[in-house]
Amino acid sequence: MSCSDNQPATPAQRLLPDRALPPYAYLPGQTPHPTRDHDGHSFAVEPDAPDAPAPPDAENWRSCHDYLYGIDLFNYGYCWEAHEAWEGLWIACGRQGTQAIFLQALINLAATGFKARWGSARGMRANARTAARLFHAAAQQLGPRSRQYMGFDVHSLAAQAKALRDRPLAVNPEAPGALPFDLVLRPE
After folding, report:
1. Which of 102, 98, 75 is nearest to 86 (CA)?
2. 123 within 8 A of 113, measured Cβ to Cβ
3. What is the CA radius of gyration of the chain?
4. Phi-psi map region of 29: left, alpha, beta (phi>0 left; psi -120 to 50 alpha)
5. Which of 3, 9, 110, 177 could form a disulfide with 82 if both were Cys (CB 3.0 to 4.6 A apart)?
6. How remote is the C-alpha of 22 from its chain's centroid?
7. Quick check: pTM over 0.90?
């Protein structure tokens, strides 16, 4: 997973290069809360769209900028921010159905990175376990012939989340926020 030092371990091509990344990745106790703190990178910032985001079209996911931006945020170390981007889409989906389950799995994957950066092994494992379970549930709903969904092999994401669940958290005090694992999301 690449939620460390705001740089992915393996460079990922930005999906929305014209949409700026935040000036810092939120981490409690180290950076201001993005929306609640007056010094936060998104405090009192009006969203690009005045209304709530529309749910992405699973067949035409490349046209959903909030979905793509969530991937960019995740790949460049903005785990909390990726979580927020995907959560808006999850709510727009009505929090039910295959698409909502898939988005909720991505939200938990971002939370896995956030908790790892924060140094919470228990939180990292719990979110990775939930992400794996949700990716598996989405795969079950898609059926045995459907491996690809919204640009990703859902079975592979489930396996990667499960591997993160079983991985020990080793926080390096020399590199605060660095993660002991590497995952870059590259939709196809």
Report:
1. 102
2. no
3. 16
4. left
5. 110
6. 15
7. no
